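Suppose you are handed a protein chain with no further information: no name, no annotation, nothing but its sequence. What can you learn? This example shows the usual starting point.
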Amino acid sequence: MKKILILSLVTVFMTVSCNQKNKEAVTISSEKTAKSTQLYSCPMHPDITGAAGSECSECGMELTEKIVKTTPAVKEKNDLVEAKAKSLLMLKAETTDKKAFPTSAIVSDYLKIKNALTKDDPKGAATAAKMMIATLNNSNATSSDTKLKNKYSAFMADAKAHVKTIGESGSALESQRESFSLLSKDIYGLIKTFGTKQIVYQDYCPMYGEGKTGYWISETQDVINPYFGSEMLNCGRRIGAIQ
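A reasonable first move is to predict its three-dimensional structure. Written in structure tokens, the prediction is:
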């Protein structure tokens, strides 16, 4: 009787041990499968993908940006988020006193400078900058809100200085781009505070200004880099719509 009891206990112990090893094997196998199927992209060239640790075929950088697969449900959710962002921007545009704080013409001129820089066109950027100077000189806040009026005036003073540098640097493309990065910060603050009629986005290039100043505002869905132009035209990523 004792022998039967002992044999039964041994059998149970062996069964539990085997099941545990099988579970561990399945877990390890699942982890390996997940790692082998996970794709990463280049921080400079998002369209280049591969396994973790691989090198980008364009620039040689390591693929470090994890790619999240978008299921139909996730895509639908992202579409709703985008639609909500647009609705918020439209609401902001409706509630902001456009006559008191004009922004649309300023943003339009800024985008012309940006587009010239994406084409490595310093003369075009200088011409657009001179147009923007005229727009800034003719843009006056008429609101009775002293706090907002002071913010608007501060933006004007700072923006004029950067735009003037871009306009006077007729062929110095790098100097124009440096001033443009500072102007982009002003434009971002202007839109965040006073809104604008069109939908615009903030984009970012980690390769410019040691990753500290490579921001710009864009009206396009595609990321087109004004800091490197044809050298690395699509370097960067979208941060999101400005709300």
